[in-house]
Structure formats: structure tokens, C-alpha cells
Amino acid sequence: MGLELESSLDEVLALGESVISSSIDISSNQSANNELFFSYLDQYLLALEDWQLKYGEKISTSEIILTSSQTEKAKKLRDVHQEVMTKVSSTQGEISTELGQVSKKSAVIKRYIDVLPSRISMTKGKKG
User: In whole angstroms, what is the distance from residue 88 CA to residue 41 CA?
Assistant: First the structure.
């Protein structure tokens, strides 16, 4: 179980570092970079959740005792996770700002489109 625990810790750490190192710029049109960031983030969160389900409770109840290297990796994971959450929080603020700007633009477009008549009559006008 020790090797499996260590390899899963390494996997989660690597994914977390991928999230941290990937760049994201919501305001630009770099959708490939943004998609890569969110892909890494999804993979990281799934791996972290899986790791926590497998080992989290066992570690907290001392059913599994970590070696010194595993303890160091767990501490590093805590730090990496904090950095990931900081990056996600700043990204969330950027997304909120961008959504606000899109909402304003859509309101302007709707006002322009809403100039059309509110009712369309299907009957022809009377002659004479």
C-alpha cells in the first residue's frame, strides 16, 4: 500500500503543478490555453478527490502511517493545493468581470433588435 500511496501522491502533485504552470487569460482569445488550464484543473480535482477517498480517512485515523518522504510530499501537496486555489480564485474574479461585460453587450444588442414591431398582423388592410 505504501508504494501505491506514494505514486498516487506523485500523480496528484504533478497535476497540481501542471495547473499552476499553465497560463490562463480570460480577457484574450487564447481559448486553447484556457481549455488546457481547465482540463488540467479537472484532472487535478478528480485525482485529488480520488486520493482523498482512498487515503484521507485512513491517514487521519492513523490506520496508515506515513513515512517521512510521504509526509513531505503531503505537505508539498498542501502548498500546491493552496497555490491552485489562489489561481482559481483570481480566475473566478476575471470570469465574473468578463461575464458582466458580455451581459452589458448583450443588453445593447437586445435594445437594437427590440426596435421591431411588438405585434405582427396577418390580416390585410381594408381597401377603399
Answer: 9
Residue 30: Cβ-neighbour burial (10 angstroms; 0-12, 13-18, 19+): middle
- What SS3 class is residue 53? helix
- The answer to whether residues 8 and 44 touch, using CB atoms and an 8 Å cutoff, is no
CB 87 within 8 A of CB 20: yes
Q: What is the Cα–Cα distance from 90 to 71, expressed in whole angstroms?
A: 29
* Tens of pLDDT, residues 15-34: 999 988 887 766 666 677 77
Are 88 and 41 in contact by the 8 Å Cβ rule? The answer is yes
- pLDDT tens-digit series, residues 100-123: 888 888 877 777 676 665 666 666
How far lies 4's CA from each of 69, 70, 107, in Å? Answer: 14, 11, 54
Cα distance between residue 45 and residue 58, in whole Å:
20
